[in-house]
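Hi support team,

I'm filing this because I wasn't sure whether my run with adenosine-5'-triphosphate finished correctly. The job status page said complete, but I'd like someone to confirm that the output block is well-formed before I use it downstream. Pasting the exact inputs I used:
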Amino acid sequence: MLEIAGLSSGYGGPAVLKDVSLHVGAGEIVTVVGANGAGKTTLLNAVAGLLRPSGGTVRLDGAAIGGRPAERIVRAGLSLVPEGRQVVAPLSVEENLLVGAYGRKRGDVKETLAAVYNRFPRLKERRRQPAGLLSGGEQQMLAIGRALMAGPRVLLLDEPSMGLAPLIVSEIFTLLRELNQQGLTMLLVEQNARKALALAKRGYVLDGGRIVLEGPAEELAKSPAIVDAYLGVAPTEFAA
Ligand SMILES: Nc1ncnc2c1ncn2[C@@H]1O[C@H](COP(=O)(O)OP(=O)(O)OP(=O)(O)O)[C@@H](O)[C@H]1O
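And here is everything the job wrote out:
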């Protein structure tokens, strides 16, 4: 469904993202894990059209979308939940959601808004409140809801666990699993490799802007190299 081939990108200096190739099949959750500064945000921003690729291709269901303006990429069916949520603090919850539906037909917006409120009752309860008054977890839900307002086929998620307490992270990941079970395809980048690999079907490891390892998430989670570098203590040590 989403095919990224030989993608390179950066910020004007040497490339930060180097020759990255990965794919996400319809209905899959695929994760890209990597340390701080590995290039995860750069990857998603280059795919979402917020950064210009310097090489490579991005295809969504066969259509070339690489290097297109961000709003065209959203219209093609790819929505980004950005790092740090980036909700507009003084705007109400509902106004933030409507930003995500920019350019859609009124009837579609109404229908999607009802579906988002159905999925996130807490956002409905707080729809008139400024987004800045929400808790971190609620702001993350708002950022996900805003991305859903575009009616995407593929959701790109940039570290949804960032800065959240473990219980809230679990709540967010449960929600992502439910959205996936309803058919939404996801590319999730995370520093929280343990959680991300538990959720995803397949995974890639990004290091220094390059993919250095890939495989079924279950296998990556057991791989000694990953455990040492990204997971700290091996799961068996927890059990002991
Ligand atoms: N706006 C920018 N201008 C110049 N360099 C940048 C910019 N943003 C990121 N970089 C550099 O690109 C590299 C990759 O950063 P990126 O944010 O993509 O990593 P990351 O894996 O998402 O890490 P993090 O978990 O910290 O967000 C880093 O070396 C970073 O310093």
